[in-house]
Amino acid sequence: MDLRIPRVPLLVAVVALISLSSAASPTADDLVAELETLRSQSPSGVIHLDDRSVARFLTSAPVPRPYSLLVFFDGASKADHHRRRLRSEFALVSSSFAAHHASSPASSRRVFFCDLEYQESESSFSLFGITSLPDIHHVGPEHHSLRDSDRMDQSKFSGLAESMAQFVAAKTRLPVGPIVRPPPISSRQIAFLAVALLISAPFLVKRILEGKTMLHRLWMGLALSVYFLSVAGIMHNIIHKIPMYVQDRNDPNRLIFFVKGYGMQLGVEGLAVGFLYTIVGLIVAFATHVLVRMRNEAVQRGFMLVAMVVVFWAVRKVIYLHNWKTGYRVHTFWPTRWR
């Protein structure tokens, strides 16, 4: 029996098979065009991949591929501040690369920046052999196995975007260009702050003139700190590396905080003198700025008596310490006419 297959249906079947095979295996230009479309949809130019897209652009794409992929491996957890910062630095490298090669489409079509999340692409992570996060790999045109891709040394992550740019330039032989970092304050925020400052300027000026702002308290605290540090000789002790105390040579279990001798003092001694001077300064400031506004004369007199006693005690301690260290004594002197 002679079997004859009609030629027309056979031709239609062959054309259908060819069309299906071409649709199933996209060309290199189709893959590049699809990557460019995905990149244009990302604000930073970083393409988000998953297992399906890894298979489409890497494992199933014919080698050599006409492009390189820089892949940032991340996790979905947002608690790791270091990993989130590295992810933002990777996005800066991507946007800086796109800005630097904006006038050269041929160069920008050769390199694409992508990211992968472990929760979405566990099988892709195993293909790359990822064991720790974060991680950055370069998949070049000649890489058949993803495990053979170039891995960035994690010790260089401390260099942030600059180190990543060096890694990209070394593997792709294309410069990233200067890292374009966004300003800390956007133009909208600057405009909003300017309008808020103009609206609140009259109220701020009024409160500043009345002395009812945090600026005055901050200034007062800084002034007291500078005064205490100056009278305590803290800067002198730091510059000359003076210890807070020394050990007694005769008794190792005994510590010495005060030493005799002019021009020599330990750290604790300076703190003690600074504390006494600061007490006197605070009492004088309180008496001249607060006490004079009290209307109760009994309270004023009672506080002044207490203040005089405390000031006398503090000054007496300072004089006693000076006399002990130097051997000088303070003697009373009466004018000749009074004798």
Label the structural class.
Answer: alpha/beta
Q: What would you give as the CATH superfamily of the largest domain?
A: Glutaredoxin
Instruction: Quote the distance from N terminus to C terminus.
Output: 160 Å
H/E element string?
A: HHEHEHHEHEEHHHHEEHH
How much of the polypeptide forms β-strand, as a percent range?
5-15%
Shape: elongated
Return the CATH class of the largest domain: Alpha Beta
Number of strands: 7
Strand order of the largest sheet: 1-3-2-4-5
The overall pLDDT average reads: 82
Count of individual helical segments: 12
Can you put this structure into words, describing what you see?
Strand 6 (246-247) and strand 7 form a beta hairpin. This protein is 55% helix and 8% strand. Helix 4 packs across helix 7 and helix 9 (214-232) packs across helix 11. It contains twelve helices and seven strands. A five-stranded mixed sheet has the order 1-3-2-4-5, with helices on both faces. It has a two-stranded antiparallel ribbon with strand order 6-7. It folds into three domains: 25-172, Glutaredoxin; 184-210; 213-338.
